[in-house]
């Protein structure tokens, strides 16, 4: 059963307080900068600690002085009580140091003895003792009419003449003077201490936040055309220095991304301009030629350029999706089956493709994107192969688990060692690959590497006795470490 809702009116005062803080004068008084908030917080904490320490100090000081005064009075009262019990009140000596007065009263309220300055006075209090004992009292105004408090010890004892009560009092002027002096010192020293704390906190916080302000000012002045600028890194090796280093690292990535984007746009514009220009030329020729027998050839060439434009636009769209880090539909896949399907779906290859695929190698990823990796690598090999293209899939062990290794080799001219990384850059084609007969816009290997990295793997160009050797390495899915290890013989197709 649901609990009944509490009446709204019970919380109206909380809503009013919240509104007062958010919209009222407290909102304007609350500090808005980190420096001011740190100063106010430090002063508030020190003020609270100082207040607690002051109350504790005054309490301990008063309790200690009061205990000393009461001890002197109790010692004198017990001495006089022993004299009264033995009947020797006449031999009572002068009071101890610090004792203001002594008065002895019997059970009928008659003053038997008073010393030194209560002689002839009435009893200090109506006394009707029932049993012997000792009590202590503090009077705001003493029996002598002084301005200081009095601490009185009352001792009742049995004597041959009956119950007798002894009053011994001492002035608390020393206690009051110590309290006043300590309170005055705290009243003067407390604000000075708080002012010192506020000043030191303000200065220290300002010095600590000065690099942050310098970083903020520098970042505020950086536009999309000034990504080469960097924020100053303070030589403090603290959190602010690490923040500046992280900011500079971020600016490095932004600058690299901007340069890459501008280069990509320029290269894409160049690659699109060529087929569009050729296509326009062919269409203009078709319009100018009146011979119907030449139209099929002209239209066939135009369709080839349109197909090239479609492929280029598809590649550009895929690169945009990869750069945007769009999530992929991931599933556990049999990598051997993915490679086999991608190879068998190819029609009209110039040279045959031979496969050696280990069974049972499972990876996490997108079947469409992994098939695109295989297609791009085989396309690249087909452009330059002389008589054969080999696709080998196996696994190899490592310190962090098993790795799936996919190798695509051909017997073409190969890739020189000095340009093996450059072939993976977008719109990069080596001299032997620049003719239109080979086709391609220089995006196939770049797309393959980006898709491989999206799956947590790598794509590199390795050594080969002849031709090019491109190697894909992907992490094997957990619990799916089957397949042929390094040196095992995969199945040959």
Q: How many β strands by DSSP? A: 13
Average residue pLDDT:
78
Query: Strands of the biggest beta sheet: in what spatial order?
Result: 11-12-10-9-7-13
- Spans of at least 5 consecutive residues whose pLDDT stays below 50 are 1-11, 432-438, 481-489
Q: What's the shape?
A: rod-shaped
Which descriptors would you attach to this protein?
single chain; Helix Hairpins; 493 residues; Heat Shock Protein 90; disordered N terminus; five-stranded antiparallel beta sheet; six-stranded mixed beta sheet
Could you describe the 3D structure shown?
Mean pLDDT is 78; it is low at 1-11, 432-438 and 481-489. It contains 9 helices and 13 strands. Helix content is 48%, strand content 17%. It folds into 3 domains: 30-220, no CATH class; 258-320, Orthogonal Bundle (Helix Hairpins); 328-492, Histidine kinase-like ATPase, C-terminal domain (Heat Shock Protein 90, 2-Layer Sandwich). The chain is an alpha+beta fold. Strand 9 (389-396) and strand 10 (403-410) form a beta hairpin. The chain is rod-shaped.
């Amino acid at each position: 059963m649901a609990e009944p809702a509490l009446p709204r009116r019970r919380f109206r005062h909380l809503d009013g307080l919240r509104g007062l803080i958010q919209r009222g004068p407290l909102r304007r008084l609350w500090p808005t900068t980190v420096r001011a908030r740190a100063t106010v917080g430090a002063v508030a904490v020190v003020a609270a600690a100082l207040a607690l320490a002051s109350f504790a100090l005054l309490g301990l000081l008063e309790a200690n002085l009061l205990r000393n005064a009461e001890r002197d009075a109790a010692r004198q009262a017990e001495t006089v009580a022993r004299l009264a019990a033995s009947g020797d009140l006449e031999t009572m000596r002068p009071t101890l140091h610090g004792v203001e007065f002594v008065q002895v009263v019997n059970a009928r309220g008659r003053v038997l003895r008073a010393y030194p300055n209560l002689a002839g006075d009435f009893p200090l209090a109506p006394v009707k003792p029932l049993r012997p004992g000792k009590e202590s009292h503090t009077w705001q105004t003493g029996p002598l009419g002084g301005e200081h408090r009095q601490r009185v010890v009352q001792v009742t004892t049995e004597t041959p003449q009956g119950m007798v009560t002894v009053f011994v009092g001492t002035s608390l002027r020393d206690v009051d003077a110590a309290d006043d002096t300590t309170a005055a010192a705290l009243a003067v020293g407390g604000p000075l201490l708080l002012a010192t704390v506020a000043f030191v906190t303000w200065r220290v916080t300002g010095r600590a936040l000065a690099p942050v302000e310098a970083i903020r000012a520098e970042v505020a002045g950086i536009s999309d055309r000034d990504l080469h600028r960097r924020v100053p890194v303070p030589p403090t090796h603290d959190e602010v220095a690490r923040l500046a280093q992280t900011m500079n690292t971020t600016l490095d990535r932004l600058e690299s991304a901007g340069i890459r984007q501008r280069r990509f746009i320029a290269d894409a514009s160049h690659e699109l301009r060529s087929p569009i220009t050729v296509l326009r030329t062919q269409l203009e020729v078709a319009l100018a030629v009146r011979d119907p027998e030449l139209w099929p050839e002209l239209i066939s060439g135009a369709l080839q350029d349109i197909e090239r434009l479609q492929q280029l636009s598809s590649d550009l769209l895929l690169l945009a999706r990869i750069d945007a880090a769009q999530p992929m539909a991931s599933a556990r896949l049999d990598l051997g089956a993915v490679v086999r399907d991608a190879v068998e779906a190819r029609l009209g290859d110039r040279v045959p493709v031979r496969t050696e695929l280990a069974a049972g190698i499972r990876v996490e990823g997108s079947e469409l994107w992994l098939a695109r990796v295989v297609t791009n690598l085989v396309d690249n090999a087909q452009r330059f192969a002389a008589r054969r293209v080999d696709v080998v899939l196996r696994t190899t062990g490592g310190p962090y688990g098993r790795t799936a290794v996919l190798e695509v080799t051909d017997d073409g001219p190969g890739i020189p060692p000095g340009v093996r990384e450059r072939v993976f850059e977008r719109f990069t084609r080596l001299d032997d690959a620049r003719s239109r007969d080979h086709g391609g816009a220089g995006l196939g290997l770049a797309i393959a590497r980006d898709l491989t990295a999206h799956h947590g793997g790598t794509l590199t160009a390795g050594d080969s006795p002849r031709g090019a050797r491109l190697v894909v390495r992907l992490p094997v899915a957990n619990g799916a470490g089957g397949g042929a290890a390094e040196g095992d013989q995969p199945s040959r197709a």
